[in-house]
Amino acid sequence: MFSRLFAESGLSLDRLKSLLEVGAAGSIVKAAGGDPVRQSQYSRQIKELEDFFRITLIERQGKGTRLTPSGKELARISRFFMLGLSNFQRGCLAEEQTFRIGANATFIRHFLLPVLSPSQKPGASYATEVANDSEIERRLHDLTLDFGIVGNAAISRPLQTKALGKWKLELWVPSALRLDEADARRSFQDQRLPLALARDELNGLALPALAKYPAHLACNNFLEAAAALKQQEVGAFLPDYLAAADSLKSSVQVRIPKIDSQTFHFHLAWNPRLLRLNPHATRRRDLLARLLSQRLAGCER
């Protein structure tokens, strides 16, 4: 069945590993860490793979390189194969497995970290990574993430999702601004209200009223926006599950009907291929779904 693969030299795990490393780094120079000996090795090994398959695997892009469509496909197959071998090796050695989870920074801090206690995860460890929905989707396909938390359940096949819970967005204005709710609402509508906006985490929520709002302070996430609100100089749009935070004790909520009426969701996402490669991942998926759903339910008001 595989005789043709071994009829000539040029294919090896080491060469495939080099392709994966160059693809992940974005260039041979970055993958080699500036080491000229390793650069030469990467170049030679990828050239040997190209000669073996008789295709181009990498191409120049500006000052770096990128995988061609054929290179991406070979990298996907190689990663799938190596992940299976790695899981088999860990099982043989009875080693603890590490599951990689991607989510936005606020979700990691408020939901993930509290449920990833040692008592909840015997026999496994976790690594969290800050990523947006599109990056999570891409990396689940690539199997460089095991699980992800996304806001949109309609992600591309074969990825699958499970609903975890829902949340709403609220406008909070510091009392120090001395605005009643009506004045604060008019000020927001006129784009005069000073706001700290979590641009990275607001993107993708389909909120035209905020997309072009001139933020006084552009933040990376809702945690930073909540910290800015605590200084009593700017307002902030925050998820309702942060409403119990100390930063809101000196602030008042301002109703914005077009935003208050919208409901957002969190979904646990995974690649079913992972479950076929690693049966233990099914138990971890189910545990994460249960614990996160419970925590989200406890935050609903």
Description:
This protein is of the alpha/beta class and 301 residues long. It has 3 domains: 3-76, Winged helix-like DNA-binding domain superfamily/Winged helix DNA-binding domain (Arc Repressor Mutant, subunit A); 98-166 and 265-299, Periplasmic binding protein-like II (D-Maltodextrin-Binding Protein, domain 2), CATH 3.40.190; 169-262, Periplasmic binding protein-like II (D-Maltodextrin-Binding Protein, domain 2, 3-Layer(aba) Sandwich), CATH 3.40.190. It is 46% helix and 21% strand. The protein has 13 helices and 12 strands. It has a 5-stranded mixed sheet with strand order 4-3-5-12-6, sandwiched between helices. A hairpin with a 2-residue loop joins strand 1 (58-61) and strand 2 (64-67). Helix 1 (13-25) packs across helix 3 (36-53) and helix 1 packs across helix 4 (69-93). The longest helix is centred in the first third of the chain and has 25 residues, at 69-93. The radius of gyration is 24 Å and the shape is elongated. The N and C termini lie far apart (60 Å). The model has no long low-confidence stretch (mean pLDDT 90).
